Amino acid sequence: MSCPGLLVVLSGPGGVGKDTLIQMLLPRDPRLRYSVSYTTRPRRPYEVPGEHYYFVDEATFRRLAGEGKFLEHAVVNGHLYGTLESWVEGARREGKDVILKIDVQGAEQVRRRRPDALLIFISPPSMEELLRRRERRGVETPEEMQARQRLAEVEMSYAGRYDHVVVNDDAERAVCRVQAILEDERRRRGRSGACGTAGEGGG
Length: 203
Ligand code: 5GP
Known about the structure:
- Strand 5 (70-76) and strand 6 (79-84) form a beta hairpin.
- This protein has one domain (7-190): P-loop containing nucleotide triphosphate hydrolases (Rossmann fold, 3-Layer(aba) Sandwich), CATH 3.40.50.
- The strands form 2 sheets. Strands 2-7-1-8-9 form a 5-stranded parallel beta sheet, sandwiched between helices.
- It has helices at residues 18-28, 58-66, 85-93, 104-113, 127-137, 142-156, 171-188, and strands at residues 7-11, 32-34, 37-39, 53-55, 70-76, 79-84, 97-101, 118-123, 164-167.
- It is built from 7 helices and 9 strands, in the order E-H-E-E-E-H-E-E-H-E-H-E-H-H-E-H.
- By secondary structure, it is an alpha/beta fold.
- Guanosine-5'-monophosphate is lined by residues 14, 37, 41, 72, 74, 76, 81-83, 101-103, 105-106.
């Protein structure tokens, strides 16, 4: 039987470019699988159900949560978001590394429940640049924009709790840094080749 894959958490304030980084990362890393979250947020026009999110109503979400189906779940910007545990663990059992794109509350839950998870925080070069990127994306109303900028400031205060902080100053550079972190972790855990125990020492 193969050893379970890595559980990788990617967080960072909205608009920092997490989606782009994941889109660039997945085709370069055949061992990596993206966990599609459940949410009660309304679908944006460009979003594909089952690809970006599973869009469900609140009753369905609460039923799944009540049945303990989520590895983590949280309210973000007034909407519910959650990660389906069975999918994540199924993929890991097959030896795949799984990446979650979740907020800081979800990351804390994952840290508690899966202490071996690898937590990566994506940071903008500055808060001004973050605002500019979200304005360019143009999917938020001015009210959402204000609320999300406040939330971004709170999220930034969690960066120090992550195993790694990657500044997304340039998408290509940031993806390369994330790839290097994953490769390093696989080597450290003895997973670059055959399954093994975590290799210690040697910094
Ligand atoms: P958006 O609605 O813009 O796609 O995402 C808003 C926030 O929700 C982002 O910070 C994203 O990381 C977070 N998020 C997306 N899926 C999940 C999830 O399954 N769990 C948690 N805790 N947060 C999530």
